[in-house]
Please model this.
Amino acid sequence: MSDISRRDFVKSGAIALATIAMTGRGVFANAQEGAPVYLSKDISPAGLTKIYGRLMQGRALPGRVAVKLHSGEPGGHNYPDPALIKNLVQSVNGTIVECNTAYKGKRFTTAEHMKALKDHGFTGIAPVDIMDENGSMALPYPKGTHIKQNYVGAHFANYDSFLLLSHFKGHAMGGFGGAIKNMSIGIASGEGKMWIHTAGVTRNRDDFAVCFTTDQDKFLESMAEAAGSVINKLGAEHIVYVSLMNNLSIDCDCDSHPAKPELEDIGILASFDPVALDRACVDLIYAADAKKSASLRRRIEAKHGTHTLDYAEKLGIGRQKYTLVGIDA
Model:
Protein backbone atom coordinates (compact mmCIF):
# COMPACT_ATOMS: atom_id res chain seq x y z
CA MET A 1 0.00 0.00 0.00
CA SER A 2 1.45 3.38 -0.98
CA ASP A 3 2.31 6.10 1.53
CA ILE A 4 -0.54 8.25 0.21
CA SER A 5 -3.19 5.54 0.53
CA ARG A 6 -1.77 4.61 3.95
CA ARG A 7 -2.25 8.16 5.18
CA ASP A 8 -5.79 8.14 3.78
CA PHE A 9 -6.44 4.87 5.63
CA VAL A 10 -5.16 6.28 8.90
CA LYS A 11 -7.49 9.26 8.57
CA SER A 12 -10.51 7.12 7.77
CA GLY A 13 -9.71 4.42 10.30
CA ALA A 14 -8.47 6.53 13.18
CA ILE A 15 -11.76 6.55 15.10
CA ALA A 16 -12.27 2.79 14.81
CA LEU A 17 -8.67 2.04 15.72
CA ALA A 18 -8.73 4.46 18.64
CA THR A 19 -11.98 2.91 19.90
CA ILE A 20 -10.44 -0.57 19.95
CA ALA A 21 -7.28 0.84 21.52
CA MET A 22 -9.31 2.38 24.32
CA THR A 23 -11.73 -0.47 24.95
CA GLY A 24 -9.94 -3.51 23.60
CA ARG A 25 -13.23 -4.64 22.09
CA GLY A 26 -14.38 -5.05 18.51
CA VAL A 27 -12.95 -5.92 15.13
CA PHE A 28 -11.50 -3.46 12.63
CA ALA A 29 -10.28 -4.51 9.19
CA ASN A 30 -7.42 -2.64 7.55
CA ALA A 31 -8.69 -1.96 4.00
CA GLN A 32 -9.76 -5.58 3.61
CA GLU A 33 -9.58 -8.61 5.82
CA GLY A 34 -6.08 -9.90 6.44
CA ALA A 35 -4.16 -11.68 9.18
CA PRO A 36 -5.73 -11.48 12.64
CA VAL A 37 -3.87 -9.17 15.00
CA TYR A 38 -5.15 -9.49 18.56
CA LEU A 39 -5.16 -6.50 20.91
CA SER A 40 -5.55 -6.21 24.67
CA LYS A 41 -5.32 -3.06 26.78
CA ASP A 42 -4.43 -5.19 29.80
CA ILE A 43 -0.68 -4.70 30.14
CA SER A 44 -0.23 -7.16 33.00
CA PRO A 45 1.13 -10.69 33.43
CA ALA A 46 -2.43 -12.03 33.16
CA GLY A 47 -3.15 -9.91 30.11
CA LEU A 48 0.01 -11.08 28.38
CA THR A 49 -0.75 -14.73 29.09
CA LYS A 50 -4.33 -14.27 27.94
CA ILE A 51 -3.49 -12.72 24.56
CA TYR A 52 -0.88 -15.40 23.91
CA GLY A 53 -3.47 -18.07 24.70
CA ARG A 54 -6.01 -16.43 22.39
CA LEU A 55 -3.45 -16.40 19.59
CA MET A 56 -2.35 -20.01 20.07
CA GLN A 57 -5.84 -21.45 20.78
CA GLY A 58 -4.53 -24.51 22.57
CA ARG A 59 -1.51 -25.10 20.35
CA ALA A 60 2.05 -25.10 21.62
CA LEU A 61 5.32 -24.11 20.02
CA PRO A 62 7.25 -27.29 19.28
CA GLY A 63 10.56 -28.31 20.78
CA ARG A 64 12.94 -26.02 22.60
CA VAL A 65 11.55 -22.48 22.71
CA ALA A 66 13.66 -19.33 22.54
CA VAL A 67 12.10 -16.11 23.78
CA LYS A 68 13.75 -13.25 21.94
CA LEU A 69 13.44 -9.90 23.67
CA HIS A 70 15.52 -6.76 24.13
CA SER A 71 17.71 -6.89 27.21
CA GLY A 72 18.07 -3.08 27.35
CA GLU A 73 21.25 -1.01 27.32
CA PRO A 74 22.35 -0.26 30.89
CA GLY A 75 21.11 3.19 31.83
CA GLY A 76 17.87 2.73 29.90
CA HIS A 77 14.65 1.58 31.55
CA ASN A 78 12.04 0.93 28.85
CA TYR A 79 12.94 -2.71 28.12
CA PRO A 80 10.31 -5.38 28.96
CA ASP A 81 9.72 -5.68 32.68
CA PRO A 82 10.72 -9.18 33.87
CA ALA A 83 7.78 -9.15 36.28
CA LEU A 84 5.44 -8.56 33.34
CA ILE A 85 6.78 -11.34 31.13
CA LYS A 86 7.76 -13.96 33.73
CA ASN A 87 4.56 -16.02 33.64
CA LEU A 88 4.46 -16.21 29.85
CA VAL A 89 8.15 -17.09 29.51
CA GLN A 90 7.85 -19.83 32.11
CA SER A 91 4.60 -21.15 30.63
CA VAL A 92 6.36 -21.95 27.33
CA ASN A 93 9.41 -23.29 29.20
CA GLY A 94 11.35 -20.64 27.31
CA THR A 95 15.00 -19.63 27.30
CA ILE A 96 15.54 -15.88 27.01
CA VAL A 97 17.94 -15.27 24.13
CA GLU A 98 19.91 -12.25 23.00
CA CYS A 99 22.96 -11.41 20.88
CA ASN A 100 25.77 -8.95 21.47
CA THR A 101 25.74 -5.46 19.98
CA ALA A 102 27.55 -4.04 16.98
CA TYR A 103 28.42 -0.83 18.87
CA LYS A 104 30.80 -0.69 21.81
CA GLY A 105 28.35 -0.14 24.62
CA LYS A 106 27.79 -2.24 27.73
CA ARG A 107 26.42 -5.25 25.82
CA PHE A 108 29.29 -5.54 23.35
CA THR A 109 30.83 -8.65 24.96
CA THR A 110 29.12 -11.71 26.38
CA ALA A 111 30.38 -10.97 29.90
CA GLU A 112 29.05 -7.40 29.79
CA HIS A 113 25.78 -8.50 28.23
CA MET A 114 25.19 -11.21 30.82
CA LYS A 115 25.78 -8.65 33.57
CA ALA A 116 23.16 -6.38 31.99
CA LEU A 117 20.69 -9.26 31.77
CA LYS A 118 21.29 -10.09 35.42
CA ASP A 119 21.07 -6.47 36.56
CA HIS A 120 17.84 -6.00 34.62
CA GLY A 121 16.27 -9.04 36.27
CA PHE A 122 16.05 -11.47 33.36
CA THR A 123 18.31 -14.18 34.78
CA GLY A 124 15.98 -14.39 37.77
CA ILE A 125 12.97 -15.54 35.74
CA ALA A 126 14.37 -17.99 33.16
CA PRO A 127 17.53 -19.47 31.63
CA VAL A 128 19.39 -16.89 29.53
CA ASP A 129 21.55 -17.51 26.47
CA ILE A 130 23.76 -15.07 24.56
CA MET A 131 23.44 -16.81 21.21
CA ASP A 132 26.65 -15.45 19.67
CA GLU A 133 28.84 -16.29 22.65
CA ASN A 134 30.49 -18.89 20.38
CA GLY A 135 30.31 -16.95 17.14
CA SER A 136 27.91 -16.95 14.23
CA MET A 137 26.13 -19.28 11.86
CA ALA A 138 25.01 -18.30 8.37
CA LEU A 139 21.41 -18.46 7.19
CA PRO A 140 21.10 -18.31 3.40
CA TYR A 141 18.58 -15.99 1.78
CA PRO A 142 18.78 -16.42 -2.01
CA LYS A 143 16.01 -13.84 -2.58
CA GLY A 144 18.10 -11.13 -0.98
CA THR A 145 19.23 -8.13 -2.99
CA HIS A 146 21.63 -6.78 -0.38
CA ILE A 147 22.35 -9.80 1.81
CA LYS A 148 22.20 -13.34 0.51
CA GLN A 149 23.39 -14.67 3.87
CA ASN A 150 22.34 -13.55 7.31
CA TYR A 151 24.67 -14.11 10.26
CA VAL A 152 22.92 -15.10 13.49
CA GLY A 153 24.23 -16.28 16.83
CA ALA A 154 25.61 -19.82 16.56
CA HIS A 155 23.33 -21.01 19.40
CA PHE A 156 20.34 -20.30 17.12
CA ALA A 157 20.77 -23.92 16.04
CA ASN A 158 19.86 -25.09 19.56
CA TYR A 159 16.24 -23.91 19.30
CA ASP A 160 13.23 -25.29 17.45
CA SER A 161 10.83 -22.38 17.91
CA PHE A 162 10.92 -18.66 18.69
CA LEU A 163 8.56 -16.43 20.61
CA LEU A 164 9.40 -12.92 19.38
CA LEU A 165 8.48 -10.84 22.41
CA SER A 166 9.10 -7.34 21.11
CA HIS A 167 8.83 -3.92 22.68
CA PHE A 168 7.46 -1.55 20.07
CA LYS A 169 9.10 1.90 20.16
CA GLY A 170 10.87 4.45 18.02
CA HIS A 171 14.38 3.92 16.73
CA ALA A 172 17.10 6.38 15.77
CA MET A 173 18.14 4.38 12.72
CA GLY A 174 15.13 2.29 11.71
CA GLY A 175 12.37 4.78 12.55
CA PHE A 176 10.67 2.20 14.75
CA GLY A 177 11.49 -1.16 16.25
CA GLY A 178 8.99 -4.00 16.35
CA ALA A 179 8.70 -7.64 15.34
CA ILE A 180 10.75 -7.44 12.13
CA LYS A 181 13.60 -5.57 13.78
CA ASN A 182 13.60 -8.01 16.71
CA MET A 183 13.76 -10.95 14.30
CA SER A 184 16.48 -9.44 12.12
CA ILE A 185 18.85 -7.16 14.04
CA GLY A 186 17.89 -8.86 17.31
CA ILE A 187 18.74 -12.43 16.30
CA ALA A 188 21.80 -11.36 14.30
CA SER A 189 25.16 -11.85 15.95
CA GLY A 190 27.34 -8.80 16.59
CA GLU A 191 28.96 -9.20 13.19
CA GLY A 192 25.59 -9.99 11.67
CA LYS A 193 24.20 -6.71 12.98
CA MET A 194 27.01 -4.93 11.15
CA TRP A 195 26.20 -6.91 7.99
CA ILE A 196 22.58 -5.78 8.10
CA HIS A 197 23.33 -2.18 9.08
CA THR A 198 25.76 -1.81 6.17
CA ALA A 199 23.54 -3.69 3.68
CA GLY A 200 26.15 -6.40 3.14
CA VAL A 201 29.28 -4.25 3.08
CA THR A 202 31.12 -5.33 6.23
CA ARG A 203 30.86 -7.55 9.31
CA ASN A 204 33.69 -5.78 11.12
CA ARG A 205 32.39 -4.32 14.37
CA ASP A 206 35.39 -1.97 14.51
CA ASP A 207 33.86 -0.17 11.53
CA PHE A 208 30.60 0.80 13.22
CA ALA A 209 30.77 4.34 11.82
CA VAL A 210 30.13 2.84 8.37
CA CYS A 211 26.56 2.13 9.52
CA PHE A 212 25.81 5.86 9.40
CA THR A 213 26.81 6.11 5.73
CA THR A 214 24.62 3.26 4.46
CA ASP A 215 21.75 4.17 2.17
CA GLN A 216 18.69 4.23 4.43
CA ASP A 217 16.36 2.20 2.24
CA LYS A 218 19.05 -0.43 1.66
CA PHE A 219 19.45 -0.79 5.43
CA LEU A 220 15.69 -1.13 5.93
CA GLU A 221 15.50 -3.68 3.11
CA SER A 222 18.39 -5.63 4.62
CA MET A 223 16.44 -5.93 7.87
CA ALA A 224 13.53 -7.44 5.99
CA GLU A 225 15.84 -9.84 4.15
CA ALA A 226 17.43 -10.95 7.42
CA ALA A 227 14.00 -11.56 8.90
CA GLY A 228 13.10 -13.63 5.84
CA SER A 229 16.14 -15.84 6.37
CA VAL A 230 15.03 -16.62 9.94
CA ILE A 231 11.53 -17.55 8.81
CA ASN A 232 12.91 -19.71 6.01
CA LYS A 233 15.14 -21.59 8.43
CA LEU A 234 12.63 -22.17 11.22
CA GLY A 235 9.41 -22.37 9.24
CA ALA A 236 6.62 -19.85 9.76
CA GLU A 237 4.71 -22.25 12.02
CA HIS A 238 7.60 -22.23 14.50
CA ILE A 239 7.47 -18.48 15.21
CA VAL A 240 4.90 -16.37 17.04
CA TYR A 241 4.96 -12.62 17.54
CA VAL A 242 3.86 -10.58 20.55
CA SER A 243 4.50 -6.83 20.82
CA LEU A 244 4.28 -4.65 23.91
CA MET A 245 3.07 -1.12 23.18
CA ASN A 246 4.08 0.55 26.43
CA ASN A 247 6.85 3.00 27.36
CA LEU A 248 6.51 4.41 23.84
CA SER A 249 9.69 6.45 23.62
CA ILE A 250 11.02 7.70 20.30
CA ASP A 251 14.26 5.93 21.24
CA CYS A 252 15.20 2.27 21.18
CA ASP A 253 15.92 0.19 24.28
CA CYS A 254 19.52 0.18 23.01
CA ASP A 255 19.72 3.86 24.04
CA SER A 256 21.21 4.31 27.50
CA HIS A 257 19.37 7.64 27.90
CA PRO A 258 16.09 7.31 25.98
CA ALA A 259 13.69 10.20 25.60
CA LYS A 260 10.75 10.18 27.99
CA PRO A 261 7.59 8.73 26.42
CA GLU A 262 5.04 11.38 25.45
CA LEU A 263 2.28 8.96 24.49
CA GLU A 264 0.20 6.83 26.84
CA ASP A 265 0.58 3.05 26.81
CA ILE A 266 -1.63 1.38 24.19
CA GLY A 267 -1.65 -2.33 24.95
CA ILE A 268 -0.35 -5.74 23.87
CA LEU A 269 -0.70 -7.07 20.32
CA ALA A 270 -0.11 -10.58 18.97
CA SER A 271 -0.15 -12.26 15.56
CA PHE A 272 1.34 -14.99 13.41
CA ASP A 273 2.18 -12.36 10.75
CA PRO A 274 5.06 -10.01 11.69
CA VAL A 275 4.30 -7.56 8.89
CA ALA A 276 0.64 -7.28 9.88
CA LEU A 277 1.65 -6.90 13.53
CA ASP A 278 4.13 -4.10 12.87
CA ARG A 279 1.66 -2.38 10.53
CA ALA A 280 -1.05 -2.49 13.20
CA CYS A 281 1.34 -1.03 15.78
CA VAL A 282 2.28 1.81 13.43
CA ASP A 283 -1.37 2.46 12.63
CA LEU A 284 -2.24 2.64 16.33
CA ILE A 285 0.46 5.28 16.78
CA TYR A 286 -1.12 7.32 14.00
CA ALA A 287 -4.59 6.80 15.46
CA ALA A 288 -3.48 8.06 18.88
CA ASP A 289 -3.61 11.62 20.16
CA ALA A 290 -1.98 13.72 17.42
CA LYS A 291 -0.06 15.99 19.77
CA LYS A 292 1.26 13.25 22.02
CA SER A 293 2.23 10.98 19.13
CA ALA A 294 3.84 13.75 17.04
CA SER A 295 7.46 13.04 18.02
CA LEU A 296 7.15 9.32 17.38
CA ARG A 297 5.42 9.89 14.04
CA ARG A 298 8.16 12.30 13.00
CA ARG A 299 10.80 9.74 13.96
CA ILE A 300 9.10 7.04 11.84
CA GLU A 301 8.69 9.34 8.86
CA ALA A 302 12.18 10.86 9.06
CA LYS A 303 13.73 7.41 8.78
CA HIS A 304 11.22 6.15 6.15
CA GLY A 305 10.47 3.40 8.68
CA THR A 306 7.44 1.90 6.97
CA HIS A 307 9.54 1.09 3.91
CA THR A 308 10.63 -2.00 5.87
CA LEU A 309 7.03 -3.21 5.80
CA ASP A 310 6.54 -2.44 2.12
CA TYR A 311 9.68 -4.38 1.24
CA ALA A 312 8.91 -7.26 3.62
CA GLU A 313 5.51 -7.61 1.98
CA LYS A 314 7.16 -7.62 -1.44
CA LEU A 315 9.42 -10.47 -0.26
CA GLY A 316 6.39 -12.47 0.87
CA ILE A 317 7.24 -12.34 4.57
CA GLY A 318 3.73 -11.19 5.44
CA ARG A 319 0.98 -8.76 4.49
CA GLN A 320 0.13 -5.28 5.70
CA LYS A 321 -3.60 -5.99 5.56
CA TYR A 322 -4.90 -7.20 8.89
CA THR A 323 -7.96 -7.56 11.07
CA LEU A 324 -7.49 -5.99 14.48
CA VAL A 325 -9.38 -8.03 17.08
CA GLY A 326 -9.95 -6.65 20.56
CA ILE A 327 -10.09 -9.43 23.14
CA ASP A 328 -10.91 -7.61 26.38
CA ALA A 329 -14.29 -8.43 27.90
User: Anything to note?
Assistant: The chain has one domain: 3-327.
